[in-house]
Prior knowledge:
- By secondary structure, the protein is of the alpha+beta class.
- The protein folds into three domains: 14-147, Nucleoside Triphosphate Pyrophosphohydrolase; 158-256, no CATH class; 260-381, no CATH class.
- 48% of the residues lie in helices and 15% in strands.
- It is built from 13 helices and ten strands.
- The model is unreliable at 1-10 and 154-162 (pLDDT under 50).
Amino acid sequence: MSRPGGVKRSTVPTHLSAGIILVDEQGRILLEHRSDDPSIMFPGFWGITGGAAQGGESPEEAARREVLEETGLEVEEMRPFRVYQEEDASGLRYELHIFHAPLPPGEARPGEGQDLRLFSPPELPQLPLAYNHAEVLAEFLASDAYQGYQSAEAGASEGASGTDGDALALLEAELAAGKHWFLALLAAIGAWRSPSETVDGRRYDYLIDGEAFDWLLLAERLVELLDGRASEQERQTLLSSGRAPIDVEPQEFRRLIGEAKHQAYLNYLYGITVEEALQLAVEEEVHKERRCYTWLGREPVDEVAFQRIYGKGRGELVALFREERGLHQGDSLSFDDLKLFTYWLFKYRLRHCDRARVASDTRKALNQLAQLQRAARRRRAVGLP
Length: 385
């Protein structure tokens, strides 16, 4: 399939490719296991079904033909999702058209790759995915388009999907067995499957960009089901600072939530929590400089901090983020969009900064985070919130 990347305008000839995200009745996605042939790109990786267009083909025609060749399935109704564009250093432009459709009836048989398999959303972050397919699938899972499939499966009802009934039942069973509510909560988190859901009109996105697990958001959702077992102070302390009401060793936390979720939790920790701490640390440096040197410019502090960290101002980076994600320019970022933007900034920094600079900035952020945690402990020691 086509090359990954962001959006750049060009008038040079375009290499066109297309793919279809096929979703079954359980919300799983069909992926192709690519050949191990070393002469192809991304041998042995998994990918969305699709490929390059032939002369004169439209994106829709190319997508249908490729899926038929790779799976033996004929797609009838499909809908456009997003177009990804990139221009490489030689000036060649790549354009990937992504569609989505219900998985057609019949048996899918591999026509080009090694295998075809259905994956649930929590399984996707663990796969080696070709090209920019991790990004594409993460955006699709977070979109209204995918939620339409989940709503159809659930009969358009809100609340926890049937796939998470086992997690909720486990929470009740652990509590009934006398387990501490926090341990029961972690066990339920480990059994949880949905990356997002809507409950009583509120949207919960637990998996940011398909990679970063916001476990405290899921804890916030589940703590409402504890029927008073957690005090208000315990709830607030957990949800505001992530401090557990009892001592739980890191290894036990990892075991209870599971290996995959723990790795995704680390992605969130470094990609969002630590990244926010880095921004705060540099903003404090700017404030300190301005207190010492009153003649320094009065450009907004966050703009200066972003310039130092990422080499571009915040406004320019927001515009680039919107363009790459296909978001409307000018609208304010929602709270969930801000999390996604922060994670995008983390990956942007990894791509554009040298390793020594990345390591130095990460140490600075971890020091800032440690300072914040020490300050919080001092407040608690004197009875402050």
